[in-house]
From TrEMBL:
Family of the protein in this entry: Belongs to the class-II aminoacyl-tRNA synthetase family.
InterPro entries noted in UniProt: Aa-tRNA-synt_II, aa-tRNA-synth_II, aa-tRNA-synth_II/BPL/LPL, Asn-tRNA-ligase, Asp/Asn-tRNA-synth_IIb, NA-bd_OB-fold, NA-bd_OB_tRNA
Main enzyme class: ligase
GO biological process, one term: asparaginyl-tRNA aminoacylation
Cellular compartment(s): Cytoplasm
Organism: Acanthopleuribacter pedis
Protein name: Asparagine--tRNA ligase
């Protein structure tokens, strides 16, 4: 609008709000890119046009022409209406300014994300998707798509969705990582970015059964390399949103100083140090136990910056993690925990490069070795140190937007008891 001040323009969109005040009508139009107030003055249009505009209902689609002007009181740009054409008069819109319950809104998710708040969240999600691709593409990573239908589990069979695949069983992918490791041997630096599925019967605010994950993998990289990359990556995402989503963050009333703090150096601590810290904060966690959501929340509320926790006990980490040569109780893994109580956003580390170790792990975890033989080929033919991580897009969106639940971070959320719309 600012590029067309005092010029006549035409907009097409939907009625966000319509207020009639004596001899003036105020119509807020949304066209997908933003919102604009259209001002119709009765004395400046003919009677037929005035009456036509009065028919407009919330979410009616229409075309409007007028002159762009700047409101002297709030400095916002608006449209002085010269002409208006109704394209479709909407039926009474079910979502109104009054309070609605979560189930009511989720049942109407296809309509709910027309609202300003949901519009802002999903535009920030789009910005993050572009930033993710730009980050890896600009650093020489090769996009290598991993399959969604897989014959094996990546991180344990208890959270797999099983599907019929002709005359055999298949599973919806939990992670693209196993397929990235062979790709790293071909291209050096690779990543995949797509939907993943976890059949966890969880109803927490952090879980979806279908979500998007980006996973980079780097040949000849170690734990330190991947911790540095993870920090650079998250800072890049935050910076991109701060630069490009000012209006959306304002709509969400997001305290941007909290995001700016994430541009400072991240906090680092070992799992052992984190457990001691948590005990001092009142947690009953013991060494060897995985963090619960409450533990992550407790820990992250102590710092303004994200926390990188590394060197976790091998008992609760994936079978393919490289053991720490200085302490065989732990593996060379790391998690990045977002501040403000949001917890794990990134998880990853160094992968085991020894075929003997991996065979022992497969047996220890009581996995069928046959489906993993192709994966073990990476260790048979030119084994090499390598490392990578995975970041769940929706958890990143939840933190950056400061949302109470991940269900608002994806257009059509899939949860334990939600499969539609």
């Amino acid at each position: 609008m600012k590029d067309h001040l005092d010029q006549e323009v035409t907009l097409e969109g939907w009625v966000r709000h319509h207020r009639k005040s004596g001899k003036i009508q105020f119509i807020v139009i949304r066209d997908g890119s933003g919102f604009c107030q259209c001002v119709m003055v009765k004395a400046e249009v003919d009677e037929a046009l005035w009456e036509e505009a009065r028919k407009l209902t919330t979410e009616s689609s229409f075309r409007v022409s007028g002159v762009v002007q700047q409101n002297p009181r709030n400095q916002k740009y608006e449209l002085l209406v010269k002409n208006l054409e109704i394209i479709h008069l909407s039926e009474p819109f079910p979502i109104t300014p009054k309070e609605h319950g979560t189930e009511f809104l989720m049942d109407r998710r296809h309509l709910w994300f027309r609202s300003k708040r949901q519009w802002a969240v999903l535009r920030i999600r789009h910005t993050l998707v572009r930033a993710i691709r730009d980050f890896f593409d600009d650093r020489g990573f090769i996009l290598t798509d991993s399959p969604i239908l897989t014959p094996t589990a990546a991180e344990g069979s208890s959270t797999l969705f099983e599907v019929d695949y002709f005359d055999e069983k298949a599973f919806l992918s939990q992670s693209g990582q196993l397929y990235l490791e062979p790709a790293a041997a071909a291209f050096g630096k690779v990543y995949c970015f797509g939907p993943t599925f976890r059949a966890e019967k969880s109803k927490t605010r952090r879980h979806l059964t279908e979500f998007w994950m980006v996973e980079p993998e780097i040949a000849f990289a170690h734990l330190e390399d991947i911790m540095v990359l993870g920090e650079e990556f998250m800072k890049h995402l935050v910076q991109r949103v701060l630069e490009n989503c000012t209006f959306e963050l304002e709509e969400l009333e997001r305290d941007t100083s909290k995001l700016e703090a994430a541009l400072e150096p991240f906090i680092r601590m070992t799992y052992t140090e984190a457990v001691e810290k948590l005990k001092g904060l009142g947690s009953d966690i013991n060494w060897g136990e995985d963090f619960g959501g409450d533990d992550e929340t407790m820990l992250t509320k102590e710092y303004d910056q994200p926390i990188i926790v590394h060197r976790f006990p091998k008992e609760f980490k994936a079978f393919y993690m490289e053991p720490d040569p200085e302490d065989d109780r732990v593996v060379l893994g790391m998690d990045v925990l977002a501040p403000e109580g949001y917890g794990e956003v990134i998880g990853g580390g160094e992968r085991a490069s020894s075929i003997d170790f991996l065979n022992d792990q497969i047996a220890k975890h009581e996995l069928d070795p046959e489906p993993y033989q192709w994966y073990l080929d990476v260790r048979r033919y030119g084994s090499f140190p390598h490392a990578g991580f995975g970041m769940g897009l929706e958890r990143a969106v939840a933190w950056i937007c400061k949302l109470p639940h991940v269900r608002e971070t994806i257009p059509y959320p899939r949860m334990l008891y939600r499969l539609k719309p």
